Amino acid sequence: MPAVVMILVFSIFPLVASLIIAFSRIRLRSGSYQVRWVGLKNFEKQIFGSEQFHFLGTFAPISVAGWMLAIGATAGILWWLYRYASRRFTLVGFTGRLITAAFGIGLAFLFAATLFSGKQFGTLGVTLFYVFIGCGIQFIIGLGLAFLCTQPVRGRNIFRVVFFVPMMITPIGVGYAFRMIADTTKGPFSPLWQWVGLGEFSWAADAWAARIFIVVGDSWQWIPFIFVVLLAALENVPRDFVEAAEVDGASGWEIFRDVTWPQILPVAATVMLIRVIEAFKIVDLPNIMTSGGPGIATESMTLHSLFAWRALDLGQSAAVAYLLLFVTVVVCVSFFNLVVLGRIRKS
Is residue 1 assigned to a domain? Predict the structure, then answer.
């Protein structure tokens, strides 16, 4: 009973309360507040109304490159659905894949009408950039470092400790540290920036440079997490399999591709699922390093919700938070079904 009460108080109640707020408009008054039910208007404002540019981006007539992206993505997704329906069709599986396909096609047209047509995308696109690009880079580097630390390298135990240090620092500390390091005029590396010719370059005023710096800071903090988990997985790969492949004359790449990777794939998929969930909630680094700027170029959906809350627009803040929940669930469930369960079915 105490555990159930704790869950109800700290989990279920805030979830239900925030859902009610998302469908309401709250006006704060002196000593009181007024709650008015508005239905889906908070969500409509983000998707179709005056906040559309903030959440989805500024739309433009789709360019040739945009049409190529949209048509190519749509054709690939429809072919993927056709292959599933023709080989192993189940109603539940097809419904889940249909949701994934609709979401993927929607994103393709969204980026076709914004990024590929010369316009700015909103907080949804920024968040997906942090998730897919950031997590992809972190996984590749983390896997590479873990693989190197399983090799007979002198002092590898020292490297293991050094690689783990960034996880001990708070996100706020990481944000301020990288904000200082990236200062091209007064930072500790300003002589280096001057030497490469970037002494007068303001990365915080350039949208893509600011996003890249935030991804670098986020990667520095989270690569150790992926590194530690994958290192444990690599060290638990049975040596008999590796030695048998070596006796058969397999190269190092073939051993990794056919022996090591299948053994660590379940762990790799799980750690990436955890990392993706965390990446959707990124708020500290863009808030500290750029305050979401320039404009809204580095503003994640979580920061979007935070800014709305600071402006006392509680309904919009809750609506953005639930839109983030929807996107996170679709992406993570799709990843779990297609990668994790797909691997289980094959094995």
Answer: no
* Same-domain check for residues 181 and 265: yes
Query: Which one-letter amino acid corresponds to residue 21?
Result: I
pLDDT tens for the 347 residues of the chain, in order: 888 788 777 778 888 889 999 999 988 777 778 889 999 999 999 999 999 999 999 999 999 999 999 999 999 999 999 988 888 778 878 888 899 999 999 999 999 999 999 999 999 999 999 999 999 999 999 999 999 888 877 777 787 778 888 888 888 888 888 888 887 777 777 787 788 777 677 788 889 989 999 999 999 999 999 999 999 899 888 888 888 888 888 888 888 888 898 889 889 988 999 999 999 999 999 999 999 988 899 999 999 999 999 998 999 999 999 999 999 999 988 888 777 666 655 55
With the C-alpha atoms ordered 294, 299, 303, 307, is the resulting torsion angle positive or negative? positive
- Does residue 8 belong to any structural domain of this protein? no
Distances in Å between the Cα of 262 and the Cα atoms of 164, 242, 269, 274 are 25, 12, 11, 19
Closest CA to 84 of 104, 60, 100: 100
Cβ-contact 190, 180 below 8 angstroms: no
184: amino acid identity, one letter: T
Q: What is the dihedral of CA 267, 130, 204, 318, to 10 degrees?
A: -120
CATH of the domain at 171: 1.10.3720.10
Q: Phi, psi (5° rounding) for residue 181?
A: -65, -40
Nearby residues of 64 by Cβ (< 8 Å), 6 or more positions away: none
Question: Alpha carbon of 66 to those of 90, 113, 315: distances in Å?
Answer: 34, 6, 34
Q: Which two tokens stand for residue 36?
A: 């008015």
Model confidence, pTM: 0.91
Q: Judge if 131 and 199 occupy the same domain.
A: yes
